[in-house]
Amino acid sequence: MLRLALFSWGAQPDVPMKTQSFSCHRIVNPMIATLLVLQLIEIGVMHLLVSHWSAMAAWILFALGVWGLLFTIALMKAFRIYPVLMDENMVRVWAGPLTDFAVPHCEIAGVDAAISLEETKRSDVLNAAILAHPNIILRLRRPIRHRGLFGKTRTVERVAFRVDEPELFLTALRERI
User: Fold this and answer.
1) Whose CA is closest to 138, among 122, 115, 154, 117?
2) How does pLDDT run across 80-121, given as a tens digit for each residue?
């Protein structure tokens, strides 16, 4: 995360050869930028207020605030650098550093454009649309095991995510399945 936050300012999206990419950051990044501005305000206000009570506590909270700020910057960059990818064999669904899930084309039973909020919360649905509502839902032929961010494993029957240009994604997917 520190590498992303500090050393990837001009980095281009990570797209291998013969792979098509679909951006997924245009909806999410403005919300993350707003959070970033609010974090900056909070860091300054908290440092000022806590410094009247304890200088050591103020600096500790300042360091934690800067760490959170760097994490938020890295998250924002990761959504741009790691787009949803599609090659001849699979769709790789990225949601920044939070989700990385590969779905082979042969395992896709169908594609939907809508899903209810209640359905996105089900344990058999992998919702990779962070801070946004999904606009692409891949129905799988059979459940696939997914290992989450902290190592928790579950079976997934649908993968819900958001791309900035769903029509282009659907066209490319229909050509491959």
Assistant:
1) 115
2) 888 899 998 999 998 877 788 899 999 998 888 888 888 888
Cα-Cα-Cα-Cα dihedral sign, residues 117, 1, 27, 16 = negative
> Could you please report the per-residue DSSP string of 26-64?
TTHHHHHHHHHHHHHHHHHHHHHHHHTT-HHHHHHHHHH
Whether residue 92 contacts residue 126, with contact meaning beta carbons closer than 8 Å, is answered with: no
Tokens 């769709």 belong to 91
What is the value of pTM for the model shown?
0.77
Q: What gap in Å lies between CA 127 and CA 171, rounded to an integer?
A: 22
d(CA 158, CA 128): 11
pLDDT (tens digit per residue) in 6-33:
777 777 887 888 888 888 888 888 899 9
Is 17 buried (19+), middle (13-18) or exposed (0-12) by CB count in 10 A? exposed
